[in-house]
Amino acid sequence: MDLLALLIFIIPCYVANAAPVILGGGQPMDLGAKFTDGRRILGDAKTIRGFVGGVAAGTLAGGLLALYVPLPFFESAWAQFLSGFVLSLGALAGDALGSFIKRRMGIEPGKPFPLDQLGFIVVGLLFAYLVVPSIYSPEMVIFIVVLSYVLHIIANAAANRFGLKSVPW
Ligand code: CTP
Ligand code: MG
To answer: What is the pLDDT averaged over residues 129-142?
Structure first.
């Protein structure tokens, strides 16, 4: 498997995960509602605008890549575009799932947790499996997950450094 092609394949997932930091805000996805444990379902850090903006930004990135950087394992530009969309949707769903789990464990938004770096990529990969199962292998998944973990930590430290996030994680 071509590592560069893999990196390009996963870009929409990263864009979708990063965009809410800039595009997010406003009404939280859970509309302020609490779960049976009395804690917020997702919390104020998961907003509707962040979710929609993240999916849109990731899909846009995937669409541009499909047009200008066609990858060999996609049957068509349309299939590549679709993979960008599902990677983005999965990224935001995984991110929200991570927050749901954090809230159930009593961890406040902004407090670090290993799932912060993993939820988005794992669910993104899971969703994209439906579009391009042929490129999946244990090595491929391990490579992307480990790379993402490292990149996510670096990106958040940078976002904090440049004042986009109040905490470096
Ligand atoms: N964000 C958003 N909507 C989303 C996801 C993220 O608006 N669906 C924005 C919020 O401004 C959030 C920021 O992106 O503060 C960073 O997201 P994240 O690191 O996931 O938030 P945390 O503060 O870590 O909160 P949580 O514990 O819920 O993950
Ligand atoms: Mg977080």
So the answer is: 95
Q: Please give the residue range of the domain that contains residue 150.
A: 3-161
Contacts with 30 (C-beta within 8 Å, 6 or more apart), sequence order? 40, 41, 42, 43, 46
**109 lies in a domain?**
yes
Q: What is the DSSP letter of 47?
A: B
Flag whether 169 is in a domain: no
In a domain, 137, yes or no: yes
Q: Ligand 1: does its nearest atom lie under 6 Å from the Cβ of 20?
A: yes
Query: What pLDDT score does 156 carry?
Result: 83
Reported pTM: 0.93
- Which protein residues have a CB closer than 5 Å to ligand 2 (ion)? 116
> Is the residue at 166 inside a domain?
no
Of 47, 88, 100, 153, which is best to mutate to test ligand 1, by the most ligand atoms within 8 angstroms of its C-beta?
A: 47
